[in-house]
Design brief:
Rossmann fold; 3 domains; six-stranded parallel β-sheet; 14 strands; nitrogenase activity; Nase_comp1_CS; Nitrogenase iron-molybdenum cofactor biosynthesis protein NifN
Length: 462
């Protein structure tokens, strides 16, 4: 069991984490016809927007209530109402997801009551648009917490409380963690469908952030989970949550609708994927399809081919808790050693299960110090400077990845994703591997060279 070491610095010198409201907006972007709305200043929104655009290379419909000095002092309810109505009139969204920021949270306003009052007073104007709010101050938490709160808010605000459940339903709810890519979610959907089941994925960024170019300008997301599907989450046979931070939304959905859930800490590695596949087989009553069995055989072969390159290697990882757990267990399973593990917040219970002695809550400055002497760095694109300074190769994971194309289409889960990770990491190790020469492998020649060097240094000393 890992010991979680708290943050020791008063400021982040080289930040590792992104903010909680960004995580909430990320989740809202996985809903069809959505506009995420930051309740705060324009600057809060600008930072998040830049990171989203650089990572996905797509237009991102992120909006703000644009709080000014007067509104910050007197209260932002009027700004919130005006922003909601403007968005409704201009963009005509099916869904507005509000994420609060530190600016308004510090003042201590009652946002829940404010929104309830606005929705009651503007019922006619807001007809056809669902509006939910997640309280996500920047001064605590990170992407994981923001994503969790936004998904929980959507379930509480939209899902029917007492659904008319069908006994013969083949619908399965999938609640993916923030760290799953577009390719990951598409692969999960195809795998569920291969068993004759109907997946409802919330949030579904594979529809909204997959690089599809519409034939006209659309001011909202185009693709993702439909409002109707969110409303009918209670009609499902079962819920599958992926990542420890999705336990809370799954549990809340079970409380509201009675749909039981199963939690998967990760979907990388044979053991975890086998459990997922067997669950789908049990839920559907069908045997595992031949194409999935073939993918498993390919993953087994990649384990045999790749494990030679991992043995004895020291890996340093900096990531959000669930992604840290996924990558650390992957490398450990391949025979590598986790030299350093750094994360963004210490609240997640998954950190205790990270396979190393300690997990440091900190920034990339802490990561750089702990990673000295490692063979591989694993973090997002902001770790590239540490990689240059230390002379250690960098494997980019998580968010943001802005100096490489196609990060959203990178498959990291199920059998094929496990195979891809093995090849990617092994190829990095091979690219920096020192090739021994015949002279270096000759013990007698090396002994003579060491003797000559020793004599030369002794002469120079005298």
């Amino acid at each position: 069991m890992a010991i979680v070491l708290p943050q020791t610095k008063f400021a982040a010198v080289n930040p590792l984490k992104s903010s909680q409201p960004l995580g909430a907006a990320f989740a809202y972007l996985g809903v069809d016809g959505a506009v995420p709305l930051f309740h705060g200043s324009q600057g809060c929104t600008s930072f998040a927007l830049v990171l989203f655009v650089r990572h996905f290379k797509e237009t991102i419909p992120l909006q703000t209530t644009a709080m000014d000095e007067v509104a910050t002092v007197l209260g932002g309810a009027d700004h919130l109402e005006e922003a909601i109505l403007n968005l409704k009139n201009r963009a005509k969204p099916k869904f507005i997801g509000i994420a609060t920021t530190a600016l308004v949270e510090t003042r201590g306003e009652d946002f829940v009551s404010d929104l309830k009052t606005i929705k009651a007073r503007r019922t006619d104007e807001l007809a056809g648009t669902e509006v939910v709010l997640a309280q996500t101050p920047d001064f605590e938490g990170a992407i994981e917490e923001g994503w969790t709160k936004a998904v929980t808010a959507m379930i509480e605000g939209i899902a029917d409380r007492a659904p008319a459940r069908s006994v013969e339903t083949r619908r399965v709810n999938i609640l993916p963690g923030w760290h799953l890519t577009v390719a990951d979610i598409e692969a999960i959907r195809e795998t569920v469908e291969a068993f004759g089941l109907e997946p409802v994925i919330l949030p579904d960024i594979s529809g909204a952030l997959d690089g599809t170019v519409p034939d006209r300008w659309i001011p909202t997301t185009y693709g993702g989970t439909s409002i109707e599907d969110i409303r009918n989450l209670g009609d499902a046979l079962h819920t599958i949550a992926i990542g420890e931070h999705m336990r809370a939304p799954a549990a809340r959905l079970q409380d509201l609708t009675g749909v039981e859930y199963s939690l998967f800490r990760q979907l990388t590695g044979l053991k975890a994927v086998d459990r997922f596949v067997m669950m789908l087989s049990e839920l559907s009553g069908r045997p595992v399809p031949a194409k999935i069995r073939r993918r498993r055989a390919q993953a087994q072969d990649s384990l045999l081919d790749g494990h030679f390159h991992f043995g004895g290697k020291k890996v340093a990882i900096a990531a959000e808790p669930d992604l840290l757990y996924q990558m650390s267990t992957f490398f450990l399973g391949m025979g590598a050693e986790i030299q350093a593990a750094v994360t963004t917040t210490g609240h997640s219970k998954i950190l205790e299960h990270v396979p190393c002695e300690t997990v440091q809550v900190g920034d990339l400055g802490d990561f750089e110090e702990l990673a000295r002497g490692a063979d591989l760095l694993v973090t997002h694109s902001h770790g590239r400077q540490a990689s240059d300074r230390l002379g250690i190769p960098l494997m980019r994971v998580g968010f943001p990845v802005f100096d490489r194309l196609g990060s959203q289409h990178r498959l990291t889960v199920l059998y094929e994703g496990t195979r891809n990770l093995i090849f990617e990491a092994a190829n990095i190790f091979q690219s920096v591997q020192h090739q021994a020469t015949p002279d270096e492998l000759n013990p007698f020649l090396m002994r003579e060279k060491d003797h000559d060097r020793g004599q030369a240094s002794a002469t120079g000393h005298h």
